[in-house]
Amino acid sequence: MDRVYRLETFGRIGFAAHGVVYLLVGWFAIRSALGLGVPTDTKGALHSLVGGPFGWAMLGAMALGLLFYGLFRLVEAILDLNDIGDDARGMVVRTGRIVGAVIHIGLAIYAAALAIGLTLSGGDMNGWTAWLMRQPYGPWMVMAIGAVVFGVALAQAKSAWTADFMDDLTISGETHATAEAVGRAGYAARAFVLTLVAVFLVSAGWNTDPSQAGGLAEALRELQKQPYGPWLLGIVAVGLLMFGLSSFVEAVHRRITDDNVIDRLRAQATGG
C-alpha cells in the first residue's frame, strides 16, 4: 500500500507541475498572438522563470514535480494502470506515454540545471533529429517517431471528442460539466499542435532534412505565419491554457488509488 500512496503523491504533484508548464506556454502564446513576443515551448517556459522572484526555488520545485510526473507516466504506461490494452492502438498510446515520460524527466533535469545556474546546450528538435538521421535507418526512425506522435495526437483528439478523460476523475454536478469543457478544449488544442509536430518529423525523415523537424514552439510559430495567424494562434493558446488548467483538475480529482489500480499493483508485486 505504501507504493500505491507514493504513486498517488507522485501523480498529483506531477500533474500540478505539468499544469504550470502549459499555463506558461499558453500565456506566451497569447502574448505572441497580441504581437508582444514569440511563442515558446516547455523549455522556454521554464527558462522564463530564471531571474524572477524566487526563480531558483520555483525551478527546483518544477524539477521535482516534472520528475514525479515522468515517473508516474512511466509506471502508468508500463503497468497499463488505465487498462488501455496491448492491441495496436493501446501500444501506440502506451508508447507515447513512455516517450512523454522520458521527455518530462529530461525537462526535470533541465529545470534542475537552471535552478543551480547551469544552462544545458543541445537537445533541441533539429539537433537530435540530425543525430538520429546519421544512424542506420535514421530517416525511417524519425518518420516512425513522427507516426507515434501522430498516434498520440489522434488519442488526444479522441479524448477531446469523447471526453473519456473524465472516466479517471472523481467529479460530479456542475463541476463535472466545467471540468469536461475545459478538458475538451485543452485536449483539442494539444492534438492540433502534436499533429503539426508529427507532420514536421515525417517531412524531415522523408526529405532527409533535419531542419524541417520542429517541436511545440515551431508548431505555434508556423500557425502565427498563416493567414489570420494571430487569431489561430490565440485560439490554440487559449486551448493550451485550458490544458494546463485540466492538469490541475487531474492533480486534485484524478482517480489514482482506486481498487482497479491497487489490484494491478498488487498483481505486479506478486508476479500474478
UniProtKB/TrEMBL annotation:
It holds the Pfam family DUF1206. It comes from the Bacteria. Keywords: Membrane, Transmembrane, Transmembrane helix. Residues 13-79, 96-162, 185-253 form the DUF1206 domain. The chain crosses the membrane at residues 12-34, 54-72, 98-120, 140-157, 187-208, 228-249. The keyword Plastid does not apply. InterPro entries: DUF1206 (IPR009597). Coiled coil: none annotated. This is DUF1206 domain-containing protein. It comes from Thalassobaculum litoreum DSM 18839.
